[in-house]
Specification:
Blueprint: H1 2-20, H2 25-36, H3 42-59, H4 63-88
Helix pairs in contact: 1-3, 1-4, 3-4
Keywords: Membrane, Transmembrane, Transmembrane helix
Transmembrane segments: 38-58, 65-83
């Protein structure tokens, strides 16, 4: 279970970095908003804190950690796909 949560954490960091370094007006606006929170690193610290918490719960054998962190990863992936579609325009 730890490995699954860890791989989802890698995916979350990849998606977060893709948003922060994405090209286009939508990604630029989102990145500017996130940079106001902690000077650009605050959102990465938040991602890391969520990953550490999910890993701690998974290590204790809590299957809900896998479900909740999986749902968070799915929401991140869905949000990235929606932002990518918005960035393309009509």
């Amino acid at each position: 279970m730890l490995w699954i949560v860890f791989v989802m954490g890698i995916a979350n960091f990849f998606l977060h970095r893709s948003v922060m370094e994405g090209r286009g007006p939508v990604f630029a606006e989102i990145a500017a908003t996130l940079r106001r929170f902690g000077g650009g690193w605050g959102s990465y610290v938040f991602e890391f804190a969520l990953l550490v918490a999910a890993l701690a719960f998974a290590k204790q054998g809590q299957p809900m950690a896998l479900f909740l962190y999986g749902a968070y990863t799915a929401l991140n992936a869905g949000a990235y796909m929606l932002l990518s579609q918005m960035n393309r325009g009509p």
